[in-house]
Amino acid sequence: MDELQEWLDKLENYRLPRFEDLPELDLYRDQLLTLVDKYIGPVWLEEGPVVTTSMVNNYVKNGLLPHPVKKRYTREHLAYLIAITFLKQVVSINEIQAGLEVQTKLNGGIAKAYDFFCDKQELALKMLNHREEGQILSENDQSSAYLMVEMVTMAFATKLITKKILMIESNNQDEKSE
Question: Which PANTHER family does the record match to this protein (predicted)?
């Protein structure tokens, strides 16, 4: 458990760059990928790059990311890509697209939606290290096996409520369209 606690302690200080902290200069795709690796790498557990060229191409093709202008990407692209990278670990591409549309409309654009996302992601990571305070653990048994069950059941529950919220929002949008 010492290794886990050390990792949780590192998450305590993890911070995503806010929209205003993202580069104002237009970026080439390799620069975009490098920055995503830099920003997400500290919490990434998978081997290899966080995002690949083919992922970016697919996100653009599927409408998750705006098309680059003259092969250049802006801070808006970077913000979307950071959020998408986290979100795809939990929900489908279609759900991400619906969620991004809802959040950018509710928050008045990508800058505010992205900053809101960063705040909430950092808070969620901090909560992992303070799970007793949030009463996520219902018993004093903090063995790895017990903790694993606690986390996977919480992950399912939060994924379930996310899907339900997206269904409700989608139905609301459909009713407004009619």
Answer: DUF1836 DOMAIN-CONTAINING PROTEIN, HYPOTHETICAL CYTOSOLIC PROTEIN
